[in-house]
Amino acid sequence: MLDLRMIRQNPDKVREGLAKKGEAAPIDEVLALDEQRRSLLTEVEQLKAKRNEVSEEVARLKREKQDAQHLIEEMRVVSQRIKELDDRVREVETKLQDLLLRIPNLPHESVHVGTSEDDNLEIRRWEEPRQFAFEPKPHWDLGVDLDIIDFERAAKVTGARFYFLKGLGARLERALINFMLDLHITEHGYTEVFPPFIVNAASATGTGQLPKFAEDMFKLEGMDYYLVPTAEVPVTNLYQDEILNMEDLPIYHAAYSACFRSEAGSHGRDTRGLVRVHQFNKVELVKFVAPETSYDELEKLTGNAEEVLKRLGLPYRVVLMSTADLGFSQSKKYDLEVWMPSYARYVEISSCSNFEDFQARRANIRFRREKGARPEFVHTLNGSGIAVGRCLAALIENYQQEDGSVVIPEVLRPYMGGLDRIAPAKKL
RNA sequence: GGAAGGGUGCCAGAGCGGACGAAUGGAGCGGUCUUGAAAACCGUCGAGGGUUUGCGCCCUCCGUGGGUUCGAAUCCCACCCCUUCCGCCA
C-alpha cells in the first residue's frame, strides 16, 4: 500500500511511477475521497468534542441532583447526527481503503522503464550452458525413464499439473531442500522458520495477494483460509501488527514450504514437466530491514540465492526486471534464470525483490529506531532460495549422461547417502 | 464437535454505566543519592487520526464488528482467539 499522505503531497510523482509500470491508478478518485474523509472528520470530531463536554456537564448536574433533561434532549439530536456522519466516514474510508489496496507499488528509480518482458536486462551470467555430445532428454522423459517422476498416476490421483516423485527422485527433492536450508542458515545468517501452509485473508492482504489476485490462490471451502502460494506470505506476516526494535534488525528468515498455485489463466503454457504445476516445494528467504539498507540487502539476498546454483553447478543468469515486469508489490526485482536444456533457454528459478514499505504498511510491521522514537515501517524483501521443483528438473537435465543416468552434484551426495548417480531402474 | 472460564497499556493485574486512556505492581527510560553499582526516593513511560508554521488543541482505540444510552472498558448481540475438561485424532 502506498502512503496516503505521500499520494496527497505528490500525486504527480505517483501517477508517473505507476505509468512506468503500465498502470493507470485512480489517483483522482483517491484524492477526492481523502478530501471528503478529512472534511467529514473535522465536522464529526467537533460534534464529538461537544458531546463529551456536555456529557460531563450532565454527570455533574446529576451528582448535584439537578435537572439535566434539557441537555439530554439536546444531545440526543447531536448523537443522531454523529451516528449519521460516522456512517458516512466509514463508507468513505472503506472505499478509500479498497482503492489503496489495489494500487501497485512504485518502481525504484534504479529500475529502467520497459513495456514488455523483452525489456528485461541481463545483469550477469555464471558459467556457460553445457554442450551435449548427444541429444539431451527433457526432464519429463528422463524422470519417467528413471522412474523417479510419475505424472500419469498423479493425474489419476489428483489431476493435471500434479506429479509424484518416487524413489531417488523423492530423495533428491528432499536432499535439495535440506541442502538449501543448511546453506542459508549456517553460512548466510538466516534463521529457519517452518510456517503454516494455510493463511487467513488478512495475511494474504498483507503481502499483496489479496484483494487483487484471489484467483491465483486455492481458497478453502467455506473458510477465510488460503493455501500459501509461497512461504513469503506466512513468514512476512510473522511480525504483522508488531513494533520491532532497531537492534533486532535486520531479521533474516529462511523457510521451506510447499507452494500451491491455481495457475489460473495459464492453460496451455508449460504443460509438461515440473515447470508449471499446482504444488511445488520452495525454500524462501525473507528479510525485515531498516529502510536505508534495503537496496544493499537486495543485492545480498540475490547473491545468497545465486550461491545455491553455483554450488549445484547449474549455469544461470541474473536478470533485472524492467518496470513492465515488476509485480504488484515490488519496487525492484531480480530473477535468477537457470539453463534448461529441454527449453534451450534460461528459465526462471528464483525471484528476489525489494518491497520497500509496501507490504509493511499493509501488514503493519514497524520498528523503532530508539526508545521513545516514532515507529516507522520496515522494508521487507524476499527471494526464492530457490524453487525446488524447477531446480530438480534443471539438475537432472543438466547432469544427464548419454546412458540415461544422472550424476548427482558433489554437494548433494552427503544428503543422498553418498550416492553419486541415479541410474535407470526397473520400472514399477 | 460439546462444556466451562477468559481476552484491558511492554508484562502482570484492578475496574463492570458518569472525574477512566484507564488504579496498583513490575520492567524500561531520565534524575537524586553513591567513588561506582545495588537499594531507596522523585519523575517519565501506548498507538492511530484530524487540525496548526510551531507550542498546542481535538477525536478514536480496553479481542473484532454491530447495538442500547445524553454518556460504554463497564449493559446487549454476533463473530474471532486463548485456557481447562470431555469427545475425536496424526
Q: Strand order within the widest sheet?
A: 1-10-11-12-15-9-8-4
The CATH superfamily name of the largest domain is: Bira Bifunctional Protein, Domain 2
Secondary structure category: alpha+beta
**In CATH terms, what is the architecture of the largest domain?**
2-Layer Sandwich
Q: Residue share in helices?
A: 25-40%
What is the H-and-E element order?
HHHHEHEHEHEEHEHEEEHEEEHEEEHEE
CATH hierarchy class name of the largest domain: Alpha Beta
CATH level-3 fold name of the largest domain: BirA Bifunctional Protein, domain 2
Low-confidence stretches: none
Count of all domains = 2
In whole angstroms, the N-to-C terminal distance is: 52 Å
Biggest β-sheet: count, sense, barrel?
8 strands, mixed
| Estimated radius of gyration | 27 Å
Give the total of beta strands.
Answer: 17
Tell me the overall shape: elongated
How much of the sequence is in beta strands?
A: 15-25%
Mean pLDDT: 94
Description:
The chain is an alpha+beta fold and 428 residues long. It has two domains: 4-101, Serine-tRNA synthetase, tRNA binding domain (Helix Hairpins); 117-422, BirA Bifunctional Protein, domain 2. The protein contains twelve helices and 17 strands. It has helices spanning 4-9, 11-20, 27-63, 69-101, 139-145, 151-157, 167-186, 201-207, 232-236, 294-312, 358-363, 388-398; strands spanning 121-126, 149-150, 164-165, 191-193, 198-200, 225-227, 242-245, 251-260, 279-289, 316-320, 332-340, 345-354, 365-368, 375-377, 379-387, 406-407, 421-422. The strands form five sheets. Strands 1-10-11-12-15-9-8-4 form an eight-stranded mixed sheet. A three-stranded mixed sheet has the order 7-13-14. Strand 13 and strand 14 form a beta hairpin. Helix 5 packs across helix 12 (388-398) and helix 7 packs across helix 12. The longest helix is centred in the first third of the chain and has 37 residues, at 27-63. The mean pLDDT is 94.
